[in-house]
Amino acid sequence: MASTRSTTSPLLWVPTGYFTMALGYIMLTSVTAIMFKNLGMDNGTAASYSSMLILAYTIKPLFAPFVEMYRTKKFFVLCAQALIALGFAGAAMAMALPDFVVVLMPLLWLMSFIGATQDIACDGVYVTSLDSRSQSLYCGIQSLSWNIGPIVASGFLVYLTGRLHTDWFHHDAKVFGPEWMDAWRIVFFIVAGLTVLMAVWHAHFMPDGARAANTPTSVAGAWHILADSFVTFFQKRDVWRMVAFAFLFRLSIGFLEKIGPFFMVDAHAKGGLGLSNELLGIIYGTYGLAAVLLGSLLGGFFVAKRGLKSTLFLLCCAVNIPNATFLAMSIYLPDSLFAIGAGVVIEKFFFGFGSVGFMIYLMQQLAPGKYTTTHYAFGTGLMGLCAMVTGTLSGYLQEAMGYINYFVFVMVATIPSFLACWFAPFHHAEGKDEAGAAASVEHAA
């Protein structure tokens, strides 16, 4: 790797870089579902529209080699952040149009590709500007910084929409419809402003990044590397069992991810819990995400102590079985915020605990080889594909089944996860981590 190490402290750009990546990603692929729901869309439409925006992040390995070819990685980061800021501001203005969805969806879809490009470039700056020791040293800060993004987006900003809607614009929080646009437009402008500030900050403090030794110098070279990475990936021993694992391990979570928040805010008459956006932001976007972080930390210690092969099935149980908390809540419809919060925290904690095994498996068993980073990205891409497919279907299935039957279906959907986990092959010694893959674990989770 051709490397020109930066003299700027990584503390000046690693936290802000990964926070900005996460903020855009969560706003586009997760928070938009709540926005569409607030605006009066049915669950099927809201979930499918939001899930479509995952596509760019799923296929980003396909255009990563082309990002490497031109200018510097910092240049792509700054351009992407400037365009994302313009995109969120444009989305806020588009929502004032009569048929705003016709303009809004293509704009958000384009922003998702720009956001994926930002991810590629920012990861590239991290990997090429820091030596191996520094990458390990700042990995925890990188992870923490990325996870602050969901807390701000799914927690604070969703909470803020509720307060703006009721306290500032004096609308009824229990009625979904066009009146919610006022609050969401302000939030989109806030995200645009934050992203501009981050771009200005990174213009001063982010290093340029260096070119990797195998960086393609032409489009033909980039296509050759991409094609070779595909060929070598499918030459791996038991590759289809590993593909099944990567796609199916979080299948039930994919069906739960969009519908969980919908269940929280839907009225009792529709089988939901009738929470406000403020409570959703606090319970789901703050306490729930804090539980994910704690679970991930403890899950990492658990795997490090006992090994992945002996614990993988147990980790699969941790991811899938606690989904039953949503089934229980849909049956009993608790009024107690403590009970609702406990149900969410339990599911999120064990999801974080078990998901560590998924990421470590990709690093240690699927990724090793000639194109470690690319093959790791293929694995996370399969995870993203699962999230996109299940998210697109989830709303329509829930509407057809109702919440109770749908959450029963979610529990049935855990069976493929258990089978894929049970038959997942282990062909590499545990603990043989690959540096390139490690750079992106936390925000792939």
UniProtKB/TrEMBL annotation:
The chain crosses the membrane at residues 12-34, 46-63, 75-97, 103-122, 143-162, 182-201, 239-256, 282-304, 338-363, 375-397, 403-424. InterPro entries: AmpG_permease/AT-1, MFS, MFS_trans_sf. It comes from the Bacteria. GO terms for cellular component: membrane. Pfam families: MFS_1. The keyword Transmembrane helix applies. It is found in: Membrane. It is a multi-pass membrane protein. Keywords: Membrane, Transmembrane, Transmembrane helix, Transport. SUPFAM superfamilies: MFS general substrate transporter. Its main location: membrane. The keyword 4Fe-4S does not apply. GO terms for molecular function: transmembrane transporter activity. PANTHER family: MAJOR FACILITATOR SUPERFAMILY DOMAIN-CONTAINING PROTEIN 3, SOLUTE CARRIER FAMILY 33 ACETYL-COA TRANSPORTER -RELATED. This is MFS transporter. It comes from Pseudoduganella rivuli.
